[in-house]
Amino acid sequence: MSGPGIPFRFRDRIEAGRRLAARLTHLCDEKPVVLALPRGGVAVAVEVAGALHAPLDIVLVRKIVAPFQPELAVGAVADCGHIETVINPDIADFVTDAWIGREKGRQLREIERRRAVYIGDRPRVPVAGRTAILVDDGIATGATMLAALRSVRHANPKRLVLAVPVAPLDILLDILPELRAEADEVICLQAPHPFGAIGAFYEDFHQLDDAEVVRLLDAASRPPPTLASTSDHAP
């Protein structure tokens, strides 16, 4: 994990993914599977999967937000074949259990909607007994990543690696014991302080829509062209 240092900005998620992949080459021989957190994590994970010649799949996870601040995560819920819920006790004290229950239900419905759109009849990549690399475009509070890690752990990977381009130093240090309890290895390219928001460390941090996520997943699922097929179209 990189220290505070001098923070830099990625051009976009493609560059972030390529930089991240360069730090993960030691895993190539393990024939890993790359798991992305939609939406933004998919664009980063596509680059990682391509560089490692690894299959790509997704972990569906959603924030459980506070009623008074939609950007504030009370916790998160993830589903990678097992529903896992993480609640931030410091924030949960300011909302009711009834609110958390309703919001969790709403986010589970959104997870099901995304499952139908992103996955549909696409075959899932087996995780059991394999090295799984969980990728997002950054960590803000850590709740979604913790929920995702715990959900993936129930799929029985041989090894579970967390890989992100950027995370706030104070949050990362605060939740690092929990992350390391769930992940066998944590890779973070930079952990600046002060932080602000993930988007501040990208020149292009546009919000991906469903169509872009599906396009990226479709492209990643296509096998690379073989030498024979390439020569067939050679001039």
Automatic annotation (TrEMBL):
Q: Which residues form a coiled coil?
A: none
Keywords annotated in UniProt? Glycosyltransferase, Transferase
Question: CDD domains, alphabetically?
Answer: PRTases_typeI (cd06223)
Q: Which domain of life is it from?
A: Bacteria
The UniProt record lists the Phosphoribosyltransferase domain at: 17-167
* InterPro entries per UniProt: PRTase-like, PRTase_dom
Q: Does the keyword Glycosyltransferase apply?
A: yes
Which terms does the record give in the GO molecular function aspect?
glycosyltransferase activity
- Name-wise, this protein is Phosphoribosyltransferase
Q: Which species is this UniProt entry from?
A: Azospirillum himalayense
